[in-house]
Design goal:
Layout (H helix, E strand, L loop, with lengths): L23 H9 L2 H5 L5 H13 L6 H13 L21 H6 L2 H10 L15 H14 L8 E10 L7 E3 L7 E9 L5 E6 L21 H9 L1 H6 L9 E4 L6 H9 L3 E5 L20 E6 L4 E7 L3 E6 L8 E7 L4 E7 L1 H9 L2 H11 L10 H23 L7 H19 L7 E9 L9 E6 L4 E2 L2 H8 L3
Parallel strand pairs: 1-5, 5-6
Antiparallel strand pairs: 1-3, 2-3, 3-4, 6-9, 7-8, 8-9, 10-11, 12-13, 13-14
Helix pairs in contact: 1-13, 4-14, 7-13, 12-13
């Protein structure tokens, strides 16, 4: 017997909107904060200190100042898409960047990149293929939720972290801008603020909630991901207020059983659906004109099954939106070779308005792609942490400022400038140049070195042999 027993022309009629309700005190705090302070709300000192401690445990002495300069240079490489990383340290005035050359040597950057560690040995979990970066991502997610779920429209979708190296986590998705990479699940608002995320570790792996105890392996993959991503929402929001929230997802996740279950716990949901996920069908003639609608409604659960003819039939399930009010949308017709306004159902319109948050976040991160590369899979995940922190900082800044909106490159440039120039000034870094002198003199480090040398440091106005020159300037 069909699930949809009752035909109802209008279905549910809800005026679905997205509400952003950051408190005024929080908005004032954000307006009073600098770009760097907003960035560090997400890429926080807790994450930095955790990385520093892990790196020191592995025998490399990484300081907070060095890590900040290192992150600043990574962000600066977003704007330098040339083929060679050596150009930053070139003496050619058209290629070189004195600020970066003065802040840190290229060898130091390569050394940090090879020695940096994101996890401890006790973090190792044989059931979790992403354990090497799991801890820092958990810290980032905690930071992302410090303002709560301040948007009522939430979308769940896939993201791809671009990577072409070897790892068991590598995925291929032909419809994504980055076809090869590491897949992530994301929970965002329509503007692209990332509330929660998780790394996909394979179909056979366990799906974890925030406390790593609730296993959803018996659920279909899409349904399990939706339930996992909503655990913190259900845990942190009062049950009486949970009905304000509306979830959106595509046909990979949606099914009638999932949406009915979400409704029983108070969450509204809307999503496109595949034909094999429903037990009935809304039959539309293949020659039907654009905007033709067919709908079925199940009284007991309140589930609407809507099919509308666009360039091809599009089916959608919703426990909140129906057909009315109709809204006109522009649609291009190949046969008429013109763009016409066609009335579409309310469910289609709200889905189009609020679904693309994860894709928008992914797009911002792709625009902020650093040039510095590495072969280990943990490196692009570390870069994604920086990219997501910049994107979230950008969103809360624009949400709190009603005037002119800030661009992602402006935010990245301000953070990079602070880390490279100001942090370098804190170390009193000066560019030291070595030259050959006509006369020999004793090495300046005469208490430990008895050599005579012609190597002279112009900036120090002193003579150094090669080993002592490197030793005297290694922290500069």
């Amino acid at each position: 017997m069909d699930r949809f027993l009752d035909f109802w022309k209008n279905g549910h009629i809800h005026d679905l909107k997205n509400e952003n309700f950051l408190p005024d005190k929080t908005k004032k705090f954000i307006r009073d904060s600098s770009y760097v302070e907003l960035f560090e709300l997400f890429f926080s000192p807790v994450i930095k200190n955790y990385i520093i401690d892990n790196t020191r445990e592995n025998g490399y002495n990484l300081t907070l100042n060095d890590l900040d300069i290192f992150v600043g240079i990574i962000i600066t490489s977003i704007f330098n898409q040339r083929k060679s990383q050596k150009d930053f340290w070139s003496k050619n005035p058209l290629l070189g960047c004195p600020a970066i050359a003065n802040a840190m040597s290229r060898n130091k950057i390569l050394e940090i990149k090879s020695k940096i560690k994101y996890s401890k040995s006790e973090d190792k979990n044989p059931n979790d293929r992403a354990w090497r970066v799991r801890k820092i991502f958990e810290m980032f997610k905690t930071n992302s939720l410090q303002f709560g779920f301040f948007s009522t429209a939430l979308s769940i979708d896939e993201m791809m972290v671009k990577f072409h190296g070897r790892t068991i986590l590598l995925q291929f998705m032909k419809n994504k801008p980055a076809r090869f990479g590491i897949k992530m699940w994301g929970l965002c608002n329509p503007e692209g603020y990332l509330f929660d995320c998780d790394i996909y570790c394979g179909k056979g792996s366990n799906i974890y909630s925030d406390d790593n105890k609730i296993k959803l392996s018996k659920c279909p993959l899409g349904s399990g991901v939706v339930m996992m991503m909503t655990q913190k929402l259900l845990k942190n929001i009062n049950h009486r207020k949970i009905s304000r929230y509306h979830l959106y997802f595509d046909n990979f996740f949606s099914s009638p059983d999932l949406m009915i279950h979400l409704k029983t716990i108070g969450l509204k949901s809307t999503g496109t659906v595949r034909k094999n996920r429903v037990q009935t069908d809304n039959e539309l003639d293949n020659k039907a004109s654009r905007g033709t609608i067919a709908i079925k409604h199940e009284k007991k659960s309140g589930l609407n099954f809507i099919t509308v003819m666009d360039s091809q039939p599009v089916s959608l399930l919703s426990t909140a939106a129906g057909v009315e009010p109709l809204a006109k949308r522009k649609s291009y017709s190949k046969n008429l070779q013109s763009t016409n306004e066609i009335p579409f159902p309310s469910a289609i319109n709200v889905y189009n308005d609020f679904m693309g948050g994860v894709d928008m976040h992914d797009e911002h991160c792709s625009n902020l792609m650093p040039f510095i590369r590495a072969k280990k899979w943990t490196w692009p995940m570390f870069l994604r942490l920086i990219q997501s922190s910049l994107t979230n900082a950008l969103f809360i800044y624009n949400l709190s400022h009603s005037g002119e909106k800030l661009g992602s490159f402006d935010m990245a440039l301000a953070v990079a400038e602070h880390y490279i120039i100001k942090k370098a000034d804190e170390k009193h870094i000066i560019f030291h140049e070595k030259t050959k002198s006509e006369q020999k003199k004793n090495c300046k480090n005469f208490t430990k070195c008895s050599k005579r040398t012609t190597n002279m440091c112009i900036d120090c106005d002193a003579y150094f042999c090669d080993p002592c020159f490197k030793f005297a300037h290694k922290n500069m």
